[in-house]
Amino acid sequence: MKLSQIRLITNDFHKSVAFYRDVMEFSLGTYAEGMQFASFNTGETKIEIFSRHQISEVIGEKNLPTEVEPQSKFLLSFAVDQVDEVCAGLKNKGVLFLNEPYDRKDWNARVAHLRDPDGNVIELYKHPL
């Protein structure tokens, strides 16, 4: 079995398409306005299992009351050549980050986190440090 694609179910199709095309600069593969469907060429894809407790701490959701369900249901993780440069470019496009780029020594990686228009968490990372 191999992963075919990851599908994001969005509240605002056009806003999400614009975000992944114009801000994240992924190449648009398929666009079907009538079906409200778009696909992007992003390179290799991986799924990782990560504890909610740990990722909540990493992205700053650790202080939520226990009866409140965190907004983050999953995280899209993208390897980049230079975290700080990519973040600077995204900031110039108006992206607000959950945290500034930092070295996560226990992961041997430099990371930063942001959200897409629907609140999905995106991690940018460079590994190894």
UniProtKB/TrEMBL annotation:
Organismal lineage: Bacteria, Bacillati, Bacillota, Bacilli, Bacillales
Coiled coil: none
InterPro entries for this protein: Glyas_Bleomycin-R_OHBP_Dase, Glyas_Fos-R_dOase_dom, MMCE/EMCE_epimerase, VOC_core
CDD domains attached to this UniProt entry: VOC_like
Gene3D superfamilies reported for this sequence: 2,3-Dihydroxybiphenyl 1,2-Dioxygenase, domain 1 (3.10.180.10)
Keywords (A to Z) from UniProt: Metal-binding
Residue ranges annotated for the VOC domain, each copy included: 2-127
Protein name (Swiss-Prot/TrEMBL): Catechol 2,3-dioxygenase-like lactoylglutathione lyase family enzyme
One Pfam family from the record: Glyoxalase
